[in-house]
């Protein structure tokens, strides 16, 4: 009788990001490609058991919302501990997924608090601005002629049925109810803060609508979810749906 060979469970790797990982050492590590099905309390315990051997952990930050799912931040008391963890735990297999580690682009709240209350308040203010302040933006370089036509027909708001646009994912978002005075560059400043952003495309002659394109449907969904309650002006929200294919 032939021996029973156990099935091989594939290890899930993550795609290489377009933007290079930060090289400046930091107390905080950013971790991605985490199994999204793990409950946050359990995930924190498991990450702690993996990474505590590299040094004292100040805190582990992880959230269950769509934007942060599958990601976490580990804040070490000392920068050297983060560096050691980055070097030794890169591609560590956790729940059949290779963890991808890099230094965090910014300081964590816990680390900034050490520097004083004034520094912490400035840190929070700067972070809020980077998440969508209309005056924080770059000018886009666009070429609409290379793009095929996209339906600009307004889509119905969610009613919970299978006809809801949420059930028809698209890497392109359709933005409606844009107030007067909001420019292409301002929209770029808001939507480029989310991973995978490609460009904003306006519709000639229709100043109250626009399209925003991301690299893939998941990234577009993250931006859509994160900005659904965002006030582009005080008391004024735009309506964001997936563009019709």
UniProtKB/TrEMBL annotation:
Molecular function terms in GO for this entry? RNA binding
Q: From what superkingdom does this record's organism come?
A: Eukaryota
> Is Electron transport given among the entry's keywords?
no
Q: Which InterPro entries match?
A: Nucleotide-bd_a/b_plait_sf, RBD_domain_sf, RRM_dom
Q: Which Gene3D superfamilies match?
A: 3.30.70.330
Q: Which GO biological process categories is it annotated with?
A: mRNA processing; RNA splicing
Tell me the lineage of the source organism. Answer: Eukaryota, Fungi, Fungi incertae sedis, Zoopagomycota, Entomophthoromycotina
Alphabetized, the UniProt keywords read: mRNA processing, mRNA splicing, Nucleus, Repeat, Ribonucleoprotein, RNA-binding, Spliceosome
Domain (RRM) ranges = 27-106, 171-245
What organism is the protein native to? Basidiobolus meristosporus CBS 931.73
Chief location? nucleus
> What family is reported?
Belongs to the RRM U1 A/B'' family.
Recorded GO CC terms: small nuclear ribonucleoprotein complex; spliceosomal complex
Q: Which protein are we looking at?
A: RNA-binding domain-containing protein
């Amino acid at each position: 009788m032939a021996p029973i060979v156990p099935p091989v469970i594939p290890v899930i790797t993550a795609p290489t990001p377009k933007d290079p990982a930060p090289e400046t050492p930091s107390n905080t590590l950013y971790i991605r490609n985490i199994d999204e099905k793990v409950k946050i309390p359990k995930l924190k315990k498991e990450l702690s058991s993996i990474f505590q051997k590299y040094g004292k952990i100040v805190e582990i930050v992880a959230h269950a919302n769509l934007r942060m799912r599958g990601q976490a931040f580990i804040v070490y008391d000392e920068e050297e501990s983060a560096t050691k963890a980055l070097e030794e735990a890169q591609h560590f297999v956790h729940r059949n997924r290779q963890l991808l580690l890099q230094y965090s682009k910014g300081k964590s709240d816990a680390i900034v608090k050490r520097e004083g209350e004034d520094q912490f308040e400035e840190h929070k203010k700067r972070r809020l601005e980077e998440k969508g302040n209309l005056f924080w933006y770059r000018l886009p370089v666009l070429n609409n002629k290379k793009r095929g036509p996209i339906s600009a027909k307004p889509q119905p708001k969610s009613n919970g049925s299978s006809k809801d646009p949420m059930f028809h994912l698209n890497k392109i978002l359709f933005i409606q109810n844009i107030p007067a005075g909001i420019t292409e560059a301002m929209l770029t400043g808001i939507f480029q803060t989310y991973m995978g952003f490609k460009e904003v495309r306006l519709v000639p002659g229709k100043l109250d609508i626009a399209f925003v394109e991301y690299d893939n449907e998941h990234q577009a969904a993250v931006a859509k979810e994160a900005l659904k309650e965002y006030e582009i002006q005080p008391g004024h929200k735009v309506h964001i749906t997936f563009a019709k294919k």
